[in-house]
C-alpha cells in the first residue's frame, strides 16, 4: 500500500492488488475533465477504482457533488483512505464525495434519473467480441437516463490508431444507444486519452458527447 501524489492530490494505491487499476498516465486527462466542470455540477464516476478522478474533481472543482461507484472492495478501501487524506486538508471538499461499493450497472439503476450534469464512464470489456458489444450497449443504456438534458458523458474506449480522428465504430455505438433511449446525441470530441498505446497500435480514447444538447433541465 502506498500513496501517489498527482497535481497536489494524494491517492492510496495497493500495489499488490492487480485488480486495483491506476494509471498515472491519465493524470493530464483528469485535469482536462476538471477544467470543464462548472460550479454546481453533479458528477458521476463509474468504475472509479482507487478514486483518482473523484478525488481530483472534489479537490480541484466547485462541483456540488461527486458520486463514485466501484465494485472491487480493495479499490474501495483505497478510495476511502484517499478521501480521508483529502478530508485532513479540506473536510468540506471531501464531504462532497459519495463512495458506492457495488456493480456499476446495479448502482446506476438505483440513482436518480436525469440528475447528473457529467458522467465519466470507462467502457466495460468482455472476452469475446459478441459479448463485448452486448456489454457496452447495455452499459450505455443504463447510464444515459442518468444524464440531464445538456449533460456530458466522457466515454473511455479502446480503438486502433487508424480509427482516429472520427472513431466511427465507437461513435456509432454511442449514437445508436442514444437513439434507442430517445435522446439526441452530439459528439463533442474524440481523442486519445493519453499519448502511450496500451498495445500495438491500440490506444485508450475518450469520446465526449452531450445528450439533448442545447437543452437544460
From TrEMBL:
<feature type="domain" description="TRM5/TYW2-like methyltransferase">
    <location>
        <begin position="2"/>
        <end position="178"/>
    </location>
</feature>
<protein>
    <recommendedName>
        <fullName>TRM5/TYW2-like methyltransferase domain-containing protein</fullName>
    </recommendedName>
</protein>
<keyword id="KW-0949">S-adenosyl-L-methionine</keyword>
<dbReference type="InterPro" id="IPR056743">
    <property type="entry name" value="TRM5-TYW2-like_MTfase"/>
</dbReference>
<keyword id="KW-0808">Transferase</keyword>
<dbReference type="Pfam" id="PF02475">
    <property type="entry name" value="TRM5-TYW2_MTfase"/>
</dbReference>
<dbReference type="InterPro" id="IPR029063">
    <property type="entry name" value="SAM-dependent_MTases_sf"/>
</dbReference>
Amino acid at each position: 500500500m502506498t500513496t501517489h501524489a498527482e497535481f497536489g492530490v494524494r491517492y492510496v494505491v495497493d500495489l499488490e492488488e492487480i485488480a486495483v487499476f491506476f494509471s498515472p498516465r491519465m493524470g493530464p486527462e483528469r485535469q482536462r475533465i476538471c477544467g470543464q466542470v462548472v460550479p454546481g455540477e453533479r458528477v458521476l464516476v463509474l468504475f472509479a477504482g482507487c478514486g483518482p478522478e473523484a478525488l481530483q474533481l472534489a479537490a480541484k472543482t466547485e462541483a456540488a457533488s461527486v458520486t463514485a461507484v466501484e465494485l472491487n472492495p480493495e479499490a474501495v478501501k483505497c478510495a476511502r483512505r484517499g478521501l480521508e487524506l483529502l478530508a485532513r486538508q479540506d473536510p468540506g471538499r471531501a464531504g462532497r464525495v459519495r463512495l458506492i461499493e457495488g456493480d456499476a450497472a446495479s448502482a446506476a439503476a438505483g440513482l436518480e434519473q436525469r440528475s447528473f450534469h457529467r458522467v465519466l464512464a470507462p467502457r466495460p470489456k468482455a472476452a469475446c467480441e459478441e459479448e463485448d458489444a452486448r456489454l457496452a450497449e447495455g452499459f450505455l443504456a443504463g447510464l444515459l437516463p442518468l444524464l440531464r438534458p445538456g449533460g456530458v458523458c466522457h466515454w473511455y474506449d479502446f480503438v486502433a490508431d487508424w480509427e482516429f480522428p472520427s472513431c466511427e465504430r465507437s461513435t456509432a455505438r454511442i449514437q445508436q444507444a442514444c437513439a434507442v433511449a430517445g435522446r439526441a446525441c452530439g459528439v463533442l470530441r474524440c481523442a486519445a486519452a493519453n499519448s502511450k498505446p496500451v498495445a500495438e497500435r491500440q490506444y485508450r480514447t475518450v469520446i465526449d458527447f452531450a445528450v439533448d444538447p442545447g437543452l437544460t433541465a
